[in-house]
Predict the structure of Enoyl reductase (ER) domain-containing protein.
Amino acid sequence: MNSFAKLTVLGLTSFRPHVVRSTVKLPRLTAASLFQRNYTTGTTDNENLSGWACFEKGGPLIKSGFPLTKFGDDSVELDIICCGICGTDIHCIDSGWGPTNYPMVAGHEIVGHVTRVGKNVKHLKLGDRAGVGCQCGSCKKCTNCHDKKENICEDCAVWTFNDYWDNGDKTYGGFADKWRGDKDFAFKIPVKLSSVDASSILCGGVSTFAPLKRYGVGAGSKIAVLGLGGLGHFGVQWAKAMGAEVVAYDVVPEKAKDAKLLGCDDYVLVQNPKEAEAHYNSFTHILATKILNKNWDEYFKMLKKNGTFIVCDIPEIPFSGINALEMVAKQINIAGTFIGAPNDIEESLSFAAENGIRTWANEFPMSQVNEAIKYVREGKPKYRAVLVN
Ligand SMILES: [Zn+2]
Ligand SMILES: [Zn+2]
């Protein structure tokens, strides 16, 4: 698999900022139905999953059967409760970042009930809820893996779909009824967190939590979150709960109300220069979940000296036009960030549970996956779409 194909399961969304507010009434399931399910047996003879697969570029998802990977001593098997839809799923359906290996079952914000565990699995038991993000394997030998940075494994990270397990089996994602894989990438969901809230944290949430933690955001920090969408709505909640002052930036006037509800101290409509100028030279960090314009001078004006610009978004055109003098004189740091390592995921789940951080989700039955994907393509979720079995 080439590096572009590998990019298809990065934990980064590309929600368009020009969101149209939806008046569509979406089906809602009760929270209780997502928590309660009893299991009386821990084994299954069924070696197949039933998933919504894409067979061609941009094609519809069709319910189909595929083999689960071989069960081993380190394996965990889940009955999938729900799975969030990430922009990456759609890029992959479309072969947007390189050729996809069809047929493909996307979905990498998976929460399910544990139905089977191998003998080496100690942190999960039958009936627990567990989550899986966009990575489901790493080499476990390189310096980054030893340093608990498996997300930047130097060797052979395994992605949750459109990839292969070490044994050669194909990986299939969460738009399905079952998931089976490595215990080290299946995380216990805290009791206080609903399955839907947990699902989108496994990719969209941790992709913003991890860099805020890594770059020391806390009391005394002032954060600009660029893009109030799938990632941004997590970014502002994390930063606020970490004690920072938070300002959201977007191009949609109506999002000002949501910014307030999400706890933001201010909202800047990017196309209004006066609103932007009020915050010049004040930010310790910019979290770019969406590169809203390509004007680096403007971003550098926003940052305090020694400020850090954190890139979560992957724009389709290369960055250019960086003013080196400004960057040097203000001692500005530009940092990339890539999903989250297993310990980041565990920490983000417990931080969300303890701090009341929620996924603003539009829920769809799994059987309406095609409708849900259309909804996401149209930029309508506020701010995440989650498929529920
Ligand atoms: Zn993702
Ligand atoms: Zn590694």
Observations:
- The chain has two domains: 3-204+340-388, 206-336.
- The pocket of zinc ion (ligand 1) is lined by residues 11, 86, 88, 108, 134, 203 (CB under 6 Å).
- The first strand starts at residue 48 and ends at 54.
